[in-house]
Amino acid sequence: MLSFGFGPFVLAIHHLIALAALGIALASGGWVARRRGVPNPEATLFRGFLLALLVARLAFVASYAHQYLATPWQVIDLRDGGFLLGPGLLTSVAYVTWRGWRDAPSRHPLAAAMAAGLLCWGLASWAVYRHQEGQPMPSVVLHDALGQPVTLPGGDPRPLVVNLWASWCPPCRRELPVLLQAQAQHPGIRFVFLNQGELPQTVTNFIATAGLASTQVLYDPNSQWGRQLGAAALPTTLFYSANGDLLGSHLGELSAASLADGLNVFARNIAP
What we know:
The chain is of the alpha/beta class.
């Protein structure tokens, strides 16, 4: 499962884990505070969570500053999912620790909250990683523009980026130039644009005007690929090894920076 849908809202599994960890931290801190007869530390915990998001975003932007030079307004567009976990987490822990040191009655509730939240986040993240690690590609027969069956990864020895998209999806259209630019910059990586739920004749004009080669586009008219993976929304971008093992995923519209960050997974998984 890569993402969950809640009515019109969709959350990536890692975002859901972070929110669950915050909820458990708040509940744990509130319970200990009531038992000890001290004020609830929820305000401090919320501030620590927001501070973590801010620092994680700033650290990501600093790491990929060159990607934002041409489009600086994207710095505040959080839809690209660009966050660096380490700096944000360390900042949050440092802030909560400092608040506990300054306010003795809140120390036990804050310690309990941080311990419970970090434990929840760590165990859930580990479980998701173990479940997704090396997950093979869905067993779905795809089709090319001529209706011929195609299977992935096929005989191409390159690692693979699979973009799940549809022509009616505005974010899919907006991120297409970013993907095409990355494809030109990384000839050692194969990019496949896997249409979900449409037929070739439906998207022929769009493909022609978007600069896509027909050989890059495959079709999954029943959206089986997305369903088997548990991808609840479009666009979703998947990063596979040359053997067809899932290495990472990204829910939502890609910026140049978030795509560059996603492509790093290939370098991290090259065997020494």
